[in-house]
Amino acid sequence: MDRAATSDHGHGVEAARLGAxxxxxxxxxxxxxxARELATAGAPHGTLVTAAExxxxxxxxxxxxxxxxxxxLLCSLVLRDPPPLLSLIAGVAVCDAVGxxxxxxxxxxxxxxxxxxxxxxxAATDDQAHAAHTAASRLAKLAGILVEGRPQGGWAVLGVGVxxxxxxxxxxxxxxxxxxxxxxxxxxxxxxLADLLAALERRMAEPAERVLDAWRSRDALLGxxxxxxxxxxxxxxxxxxxxxxxxxxGGAIATLDAGEVHLRLV
Length: 266
Known about the structure:
Layout: E1 3-6, E2 22-27, H1 31-40, E3 48-51, E4 73-80, H2 86-98, E5 103-105, E6 109-114, H3 117-121, H4 126-136, E7 138-150, E8 155-162, H5 173-176, H6 189-204, H7 208-216, E9 225-228, E10 231-238, E11 244-249, E12 252-256, E13 264-265
Parallel strand pairs: 2-3
Antiparallel strand pairs: 1-2, 3-4, 4-8, 5-6, 6-7, 7-8, 9-10, 9-13, 10-11, 11-12
Helix pairs in contact: 2-6, 2-7
């Protein structure tokens, strides 16, 4: 059973077009599920659902999203007449809010590159150091984004989960290997939410070309070798529809849609 309190919190959330009305749940299965119910019932644009804990949080393609209670920003927004590039817009906006070296792993996982610096530093030569750095580097996930909608109804639900104060060692083993945390105090969750809502407002108002340029400047896959169910190649950016371009060798280019692939770094 969801335990809820409806309120307008501080940090500027109540003044934003996104974020009001707000329903805050201490415990729920999924903020996206609750937001979908509200959207179906006619909730206005900008309606926000947040939670301290989820029991069945999920990401793209059915993946689970886990975080200890009170340690992550867990939120979902009802958006009426959403823009076509919403998924990419959300990735850029999360990077804006998080700051630092956050980048986007296509289509919209927000990641940072982590390396075993001690291993690289101990290598005997510069070439060995570069090889050790490359072998040890990984894209660790700071935030996940899930867009669900009903095109015929003219609405979408945008779900965002950010590991703000998540102790990585407390995550399930399967999630721990690819996860990262901002390692901020729990008190940072509300201010980050305010920053995220402001970033989404700003990015949703921008022309598509500007959003695409911003996304490309944060492209975590660019130049990396990747594989998917249908083949492998080298990530070569995105086109103007947000599709991933993959160089296959010999000048051939594959174009991938987000719903079609499970990417793997090679």
